[in-house]
Structure formats: structure tokens, C-alpha cells
Amino acid sequence: MGSHNGGETMSHFESLYPGRFLKGITLLQPLTITIKAIEGAVQLESDDGKKESKVVLHYHDGSKEGQIVWNRTNSVLTASALHEPDYTKWIGRQITIHFDPTVAFGAEKKGGIRVLGSPDLKDEIEVAIKMPRRKHPIRYRLSPTAKPSLTAAQIRAENVRLYRKLSEHNPQQATDLAAAHKDNPQQLQDALTEAIRATEGGNPSM
Q: What superkingdom does the record give (predicted)?
């Protein structure tokens, strides 16, 4: 993962030491991800060795899968970007994340992962989040972002998976959609995703 500066690709050294969770500092450019699962009450060890209950977001970005420790601020931003407060309906939806150097941990600004927007957004929106012990809310601006481009092989593989998933519930609808969009794989993927979301309440990736 890298960004371009003067024609050269740069990668942060932390990317040489991957761990269980995505490190924000390695996000040298915005990344659009698809949410696979939201896992609550995950017991993780903090810097002082104590166990803390955290929320973990599971995702894939078109080439690999990963996990992010998902704090309340990012949950509020995700709900706003997707216009959906029910986190069980975030599954299969896309958001764009980036590294925000202004994120503070205690009194120190160390930077962290923040939601930047979503391909589902039509217009920019502003979200104000009230934080404990702060007089004024922190304001974030969420923007419409582009969907990540997939290779033809990735689109075909995803369409096969979605077709099989929809066929478990409505084989005739799956067949009809495949016939209607046989010449446009991307339209087929969008149609299958929406059909599964309507059938399962927003869970095309489950």
C-alpha cells in the first residue's frame, strides 16, 4: 500500500510489521472497504496488559481481508455515511477510510483511522460528535467516494458467489437477474447484491 510523491511509490515502514489489525499510519491514501462483519465484546489486551472489551470490524478491500478495532466515533460516522443506524445492516456495504493525523489518544495526537465517506453517499454531509469532557462537539465532513475497481476475474467470482447465495432463497429471481444482465457483469453484481440485501435484511456477504 502506498502513495505517490514525485512519481515514486512510498510505503510506511510499519507496513513491514503487519499484525492482526490494520494500522492507520500505513494508510497513505484513502481505502474503500466492504464490511464483512461487526464483532462486539472482543477482549483485547491494552498497552498496560489489562483486558478491554472492544468492537472489531472485519472487511475486505477487493484483494485481501483484514480487521480494524472499531471505536464509537467510527461507528457514528459509519451509521451517518450509510444512513443506517442498525449495524447488522452494514454487512456488504462499503465505506472509505483514511489516516487522520489529528486523532488524539489522551492528550497526545497520534493519529488514527477515520471514516472519510462512502460510495453510497450522494452529497457531502457534516457530522457533529459530542465527546466526553469536551465543551464543543468534534465535526467531521463525510464525502461521496468512488467504488474500488475490480478485475474482470474478481467480478466474475463475486457474481458466482452472489448468484449461489440468492439461489438459496429465490432461484427463479437469481436466474432472471443473470439473464437480464448477462452482458454487463457489474450491473449483475449490483442487482444480485440489492436482491440479497432485500431478502436477508442487508447481508450479502454472510
A: Bacteria
